Model the fold of this input.
Amino acid sequence: MGSSQKYFVIVFVCFIFPHVGESANQTLRKVSATDDNGDASKTVPDFVHEHGFNFEEHKVVTEDGYVLSLWRINRGKGVPLILQHGVLDTAYTFLLAGPTRCPAFYFAKKGYDVWMPNSRGQTYSLEHKKGYKWYLPFSKFWDFTFYDMARYDFSTIIEYVKKTTDSQKVSYVGHSQGTTTYILKASLDPEYINNNINVFVALGPALYIKPQNSRAADLVANKVRLFDWMYSFNFNYFWVLPEWVLKLTEPFCRSFPELYHGIVPFIGGETKRLNFDIRRWPSLCTKMPGGTSTKNLVHWLQIIRAGGKFQMFDYGARKNAEVYGQETPKEYDLSGLKQVNVPTLVVSGSNDALITDESVRKTMTVLNNGKSDQVLELIKLDDYAHMDFIWGKDCIKKLYPHVDRFIKRALRD
Done:
């Protein structure tokens, strides 16, 4: 077990474990292979093929040398649709809800050519062209945050999908940090976005992060500054586990599905009723989380401690002066968003502990370009927490049809 995993165990035992079993009106029991059709044991290609879809894995290389794994699911040629996951997550998050509920299958059935990139520095994207080894403690591999994903990864993915599908533009759906990279890229290069993206859907947009009910965010941002300590002592990655290690968790997770209640709501928010099918818990364990760099997590925590100010990475006064020309980190300049004219749908949840109503209002303000012909809409889902947008049992009725109609209307107009 790596150093970062050891410290997570300490946090789990002291702070998360006491909440295990705090379920939302759901009887807990063991999850057998019959309950989930043995999906937790299946490889991603096998799971996808079993349900009648094509699966392909593609590898792309960013300008700064990271090798990203892109998963493609379809039933033939269609409109290319990118589903981009959030922090600590993997592309499997769009398959987790199961064959009848997951967004990847839903949109593939609707005729889309679904592409799901795995972000740099998580389980499925751990290669670098310069040979940087992710598992070495002082490796240069881990010197990145979401800013680098926006600067390098975003356009690499878009260009590859366009070329492979022979398309001029693509549709983009992001969840959490997956929205951040779009918004940052749009502010840096609005012309690129206008020329290459035909519609943007933001699920739980992560920009002005000022959590109000996330016990996990409050814990690591203000009470136990675990990740700051890890970063200062060069423990450069967190919760990054090779695929073979994730597979070993299946028996344990089948026996203790109640662990879900001590981890996910602890981070993303409590709901009145559980919108996650607990039978999918073993599959979550064997394919996720993906992990990320400690620097990336510290960057998000700095934003939280700054009261939600969307700022650049804080290196400390001396290095800030070298990098930014001032002792404090600069705020990101999002004025370029005023030049973006891409139809945009923002989706928020009333019980999202990470993305508050205030955060959503501020995000809607910066996305508003002030033009009379702009298409900018907001949907707020009652009793939805941060992960419910992609794992929710009722998304297939309450959310995805809206997203499908919005995209098709934008493409038609």
Q: What stands out?
A: The two ends are 53 Å apart (CA to CA). The first strand starts at residue 54 and ends at 61. DSSP finds 18 helices and eleven strands in the chain.
